[in-house]
Each structure stands twice: as structure tokens, then as C-alpha cells.
Automatic annotation (TrEMBL):
Listed pathway(s): Carbohydrate biosynthesis; dTDP-L-rhamnose biosynthesis
SUPFAM superfamilies: RmlC-like cupins
The reaction(s) this protein catalyses: dTDP-4-dehydro-6-deoxy-alpha-D-glucose = dTDP-4-dehydro-beta-L-rhamnose
UniProt superkingdom: Bacteria
Keyword Isomerase in annotation: yes
Protein name: dTDP-4-dehydrorhamnose 3,5-epimerase
Lineage, broadest ranks: Bacteria, Pseudomonadati, Pseudomonadota, Alphaproteobacteria, Rhodospirillales
Entry GO MF terms: dTDP-4-dehydrorhamnose 3,5-epimerase activity
DNA damage recorded as keyword: no
Assembly behavior: Homodimer.
Length: 181
């Protein structure tokens, strides 16, 4: 696998390197030693999946507050997503900046998002499934969120979301979100 940094400190693109044979191929997506060499967590005690019926479905931007902060490794296993990370770490060189990558079932890329970053995605096709490996169990009381279209962040989404939860539609902007904990 190849691990490539993004413009956001600690956010990496993980690209499997398939080894083909007559059956198809085999590729690693997580290696504790390789992840550690890049300052990444490789212990994922929780895995989750989200299925999204329609294109232009938005999920996010979410994170968990300390001491329950979580790193995520996100991969699209069916369809396509515009996957976004926003740096919320005040001491980070990329504080208040965002990065996005298109993850598809075909490109098999994964985005590693460290603790202290918000995460969200917009589906680019119908019938999209996303697989998350998460470094900490979900703690509802630590759940936080940031409005997807906050002008203080200025994410350049590929299209306007058509479907989102009531919770995500009501998330606060940057100033109020940072007061959440």
C-alpha cells in the first residue's frame, strides 16, 4: 500500500497496491507498522457501514470531543463519495482548513482522518455504501457537528446536497460549533 499525505496535517490518502493473480488480486489496506511510520493509528475497535440510497446525500460534518476523539479510515465500497476532512486542532499547521478526495469502489482509495478533525461526505451516485474503521467507540455525549456549508470553512462541494438528516441540517456554524466542547 502507498500512504500519501494531503495538505491537512495528519490526513493521509491510503492506496492499496493490488497483487494480481488468476483469482483476481490481494492488497493490504492497513498495516500497523506502515501506519505508525506515518503517525497514524491502526487500532480500529469499531467498524461501521452506511448505505445511501440517493446521489447528493450528505452525512456530516461530525467528530467526537476529547477524551473520546476518534481517528477514521474511510473507504467507499459501492458507488462514489466526495469525502471531506476539516482540521479542528488549534495547534495544527492546517487549522480551519479542509481537504477532500473522491473515493469510489473502483479506485479503492481510503482516507485516513486523525482525531481532532471533522468528517463528512456527499454521495456522488445512487446506491452508495461507505465502510468506516474507527479508533474509538461511539459515545453519543461526545458527538459534535459542524454545518456543511459554513462560509468560515468554505468547502467547495461538487453539488448541493439533496438529502440529509434533520440533525445535520441543524448543525451549528464554526463559531457555535467550537463552543460545543
Amino acid at each position: 500500500m502507498r500512504i500519501a499525505p494531503t495538505p491537512l496535517a495528519g490526513v493521509h490518502l491510503v492506496e492499496p497496491e493490488p497483487v494480481p493473480d488468476a483469482r483476481g488480486f490481494f492488497a493490504r489496506l492497513v498495516c500497523a507498522d506502515s501506519f505508525a511510520a506515518h503517525g497514524m493509528v491502526a487500532d480500529f475497535p469499531q467498524c461501521s457501514v452506511s448505505w445511501n440510497r440517493a446521489a447528493a446525500t450528505l452525512r456530516g460534518l461530525h467528530w467526537q470531543a476529547a477524551p473520546h476523539a476518534e481517528a477514521k479510515l474511510v473507504r467507499c465500497t459501492r458507488g462514489a463519495i466526495f469525502d471531506v476532512a476539516v482540521d479542528l486542532r488549534p495547534n495544527s499547521s492546517s487549522y480551519r482548513r479542509w481537504v477532500a478526495r473522491e473515493l469510489t469502489a473502483e479506485n479503492r482509495l481510503a482516507l485516513y482522518i486523525p482525531a481532532g478533525c471533522a468528517h463528512g461526505f456527499l454521495t456522488l451516485s445512487d446506491d452508495t455504501e461507505v465502510f468506516y474503521q474507527i479508533s474509538a467507540p461511539h459515545m453519543p455525549d461526545a458527538a459534535r457537528g459542524l454545518r456543511w456549508d459554513d462560509p468560515d470553512i468554505g468547502i467547495d462541494w461538487p453539488t448541493t446536497p439533496a438529502v440529509m438528516s434533520e440533525r445535520d441540517a441543524a448543525l451549528p456554524g464554526w463559531a457555535d460549533a467550537m463552543g460545543q466542547g
